[in-house]
Each structure stands twice: as structure tokens, then as C-alpha cells.
Hints:
CATH architecture: 2-Layer Sandwich
Distance between the termini: 29 Å
Number of helices: 6
Shape: globular
Number of domains: 1
Largest sheet: 8 strands, antiparallel
CATH topology: HIT family, subunit A
Strand order of the largest sheet: 1-2-3-5-4-7-8-6
Order of helices and strands: HEEEHEEHEHEEHH
Number of strands: 8
Oligomer: single chain
Helix content: 25-40%
CATH superfamily: HIT-like
Amino acid sequence: MNGVPSTACAYCTGLLASPGAVPWNQVLHDGGDFIVAPSKGSIVPGWLLVVAKRHVLCAGALASSELEALTSTLRKARAAVQQEYGNVTLFEHGPSSRASELGCGIDHMHLHVVPLPFSLMKAVDELFPGMQWFGAYGLEHSRLMHASGRGYIAIKEPHSPKWVFAEPVSPTRQMVRQAIAHTLGKPSEFDYATHPFTPNVVETIEVLSPLL
């Protein structure tokens, strides 16, 4: 993962190379090193992604200087979602290697910005018990975990100053999406590949584009 675009990557070949081809490949904001886009599989409207322009595996694989830029773009995306949809939760599946179960199917750094009416950490705990969470005041901790070869889930709840991290005992594809879908009463609709929730994506673009 040296930053060179990958022909096997849906973001490198789609979102970043041919924006606009499908609704979820819309660039809503260009922050320089990172862009903001709607998420395919938006189980709720207002779901955004902050995506690295360079091909890198996860936030933990970024340089410290890039984390500062990422935080700035996250702040902008979060403010837009909060203005229109209320409390915002941030999360990332942070795989330690390509094609891992912890990854959500796209091995290219992206963080989720989602309006949720519940605690995501509790939702993950309910579906995947045994998670050991610990807090950190920034995403810098993701770099420590990645450097030691540990995959992680990172979550920032709406009213907390801290990120919380956990290394899943038994990683499962799209773990956090599964927890969200389960809590919203749609347990079989978590997979963006089979349930793109296109109307929610379209609403997200229409509502949030003017703010971004």
C-alpha cells in the first residue's frame, strides 16, 4: 500500500477516477488529501464517507501529517450531517492486511460519518460480545495498532471527546454495518453489495451537497 492507485480498487477505479458514474460515486467535497462522498449501502440517509485520495489501507497506515488533514475533513463532514440529521457517529473498519475479514470489502482508507440515534459501541457489543474497548483522544492510536499488525474497529460517539478502539476477537466482514442494521431492525440488509439503499444515497446528495 504505497499510495499508487490500484486497478483492483473500487475507489481508485470508480469514485476517484470516474466520479458521478453512479450515485455513490459523487464527490461532495474535495479537502485536498481527502474527499467526502455518500456511502453505497446507506442504511440511513445522511451517511457520508471520508476517503483518502491515495491508495492506502486504513487510517492507521497514514502519516501523522495526513491524520491532521483527515481530522479537518472529518470535522467538515460531521458538521454538515449534524446540521441536517442530528447526532453523528464516526467509525472505521481498520484491517491490518488486504482482503481480511475485518475489512468491509474495499481495501482503501475510508471513514464513515453516520447519523445514529443509538450508541454504536453498545450495538457492536450486543452483536459481537467480548470486545475489549479502550479510549484515545485521537486517531493517532490507529497508527500504533496498524504498526503492530493489529486490525481494529474505531468508533467516536457523538458526545465523547475520545475515539474508542477494539481489536475484534473473531473478525467478521462488515461488522459495524451488521451492528447498525441489526439495531435498526434490518439484520439481513447490512451488505452494501446487495442492499445499496439508493434512495437514501440520493437524499444524502440532495440535502448535504449545499453544505459541503
